[in-house]
Amino acid sequence: MPIADLALITGATSGIGEAFARLHANKGGDLIITARRAAELEAMKAELEATHGITVYAIPADLGTSEGIDALLDIVATIEIPDILINSAGFGGHGPHVLRDLATEQAMIDLNIKAVVTVTHRIGGAMARRGSGKILNVSSTAGFAPGPLQAVYFASKAFVTSYSQALDQELRPRGVTCTALAPGFVETNFAKRADIIGTAFTKAGGASADSVAQCGYKAMQQGKLVAVNDRLLGFVMQWMMPLMPRRFVLEAIQRSQSKD
Predict the structure, then answer these.
(1) Which of 5, 51, 93, 123 is most exposed by smallest CB count within 10 Å?
(2) Which positions fall inside the Ketoreductase domain (predicted)?
(3) What pTM value is reported for the model?
């Protein structure tokens, strides 16, 4: 499948989502970008249209709410079925689960899981009826194991990775593929919001959002099931950890998520 003309990207004004939007624009593709902050979306729309001569639809929406998801999908339905869907919106949080604010944990589930499922169900269904399309869901290497001190975030990414692979198997005969992108630590504002700066996991530094987006975009175009930008970490998490005693794994991950 050639590079698609129209990509819908959530979480498009920051981090990996922004990197995906800029990468697609640089390839000459049109965009539907969505995020919560309207001013940032409009500024990005103006910049990308002026720089690349493309069409950018900017749709402010809070995908952590049913109303925001419905508003986005209703507007997208008036444009056209995207050729690419990239679900990048999401957030994490640090600390013992029972000591964290329950509403925040539930909001994480709403954005990291519910929004991905709802948007993918609608757009993926339209793609399947058309007979073509590519979906990329931004997951994480966190999805390969339980995550003490980030219990809900790790579990949400395990869902995304599993869900994406199942969807690919269901949709591939109808011309649609689904790729899970599972990066390790990425140098974005995500870490600050998730309050993981200072953990052992982040001290060694991470990949750039641009390099992660390039890895994911290439894997999506190739129709791969799972893409991991950090091959060593991916090997450890996918192949070595399942062979290790479970308690050892839990303790190792907890140490990596702890702060001095």
Answers:
(1) 51
(2) 5-189
(3) 0.92
